Amino acid sequence: xxxxxxxxCNYVLISYGHSSLSSDSMQQMLMDLSGDDAAFGHFGATxxxxxxxxxxxxxxxxxxxxxxxxxxxxxxWANLNPQAVMHAKTMTAQxxxxxxxxxxxxxxxxxxxxxxxxxxxxVTSLERARDLKQPPAVIMGMGQHDQPAEIGQxxxxxxxxxxxxxxxxxxxxxxxxxxxxDACQIYDCFTYTVEITLQDYGFFGPGEGQAWFQGGTIxxxxxxxxxxxxxxxxxxxxxxxxxxxxxxxxxxxxxGRRQLGPATGTREPRxxxxxxxxxxxxxxxxxxxxxx
Length: 292
Fold this sequence. Notes:
The chain is of the alpha+beta class. The chain has a single domain, classed as 3-Layer(aba) Sandwich (Peroxisomal Thiolase, Chain A, domain 1). The protein is about 35% helix and about 15% strand. It contains ten helices and eight strands. It has helices at about 25-35, 45-60, 65-80, 95-100, 125-130, 165-175, 190-200, 210-215, 230-235, 240-250, and strands at about 5-10, 100-105, 105, 120-125, 135-145, 185, 270-280, 285-290. The strands form two sheets. A six-stranded mixed β-sheet has the order 4-1-5-8-7-6. A two-stranded antiparallel sheet has the order 2-3. Helix 3 crosses helix 7 and helix 6 crosses helix 7 (about 190-200). The radius of gyration is 19 Å and the shape is globular.
């Protein structure tokens, strides 16, 4: 496979989208989406990810102490990003701990944002990208793995998820090890998703997440910046495009105050590992970008 490049990344202004549904309409929509599960009070993505997170609490001892660090770390990046929905809103440990439960053990601040807007990435050949106005971000490795499983019957939601094989395949194609990665842009529909993805990528082992995240590991000034735009938790939710667009822009040097390097006390972004996740941890894609 020839090298491809993310030639341009166009941001547009993010805004909230609103809709109005009657209680009867909402109930019918939830039933249509969830089927028989709704009869047992289980519907929606938060409920399904809460089951996965609760399983992980049991099997490798993770929990809110870890997820709090993820939510706060990403918010600190959002505070450097004027386009982030949460740009002007700081987050303390008390803010996290006092946010309401959505589905235990996940709080409101463990959930991604609901936003409306758009993003675009232009993919072209390396040969053509050399002549473009912006410096390109080269795709040096890709991997994908699907692990179909119904959440109510699954035994794999505490890992390994599809991230394990997808990450291994992407690193193998790129011909690098994890030590070469300067930053990660992780699909973060929930804080737990960030933890399990990085764990399955091999940055730390089961049960080691809390210690790994301590000391501002993923924050400005940290040794492994994660979701430097604020991510889907604190910038905006555009499915897989939020991490991929941020990875490309960091490689291009177009991130202003949050730009990786001396300004944020981090390494220069020469190699960035990006992820996307589908379903309830049922499919996973990994793309590794590098500077030309």
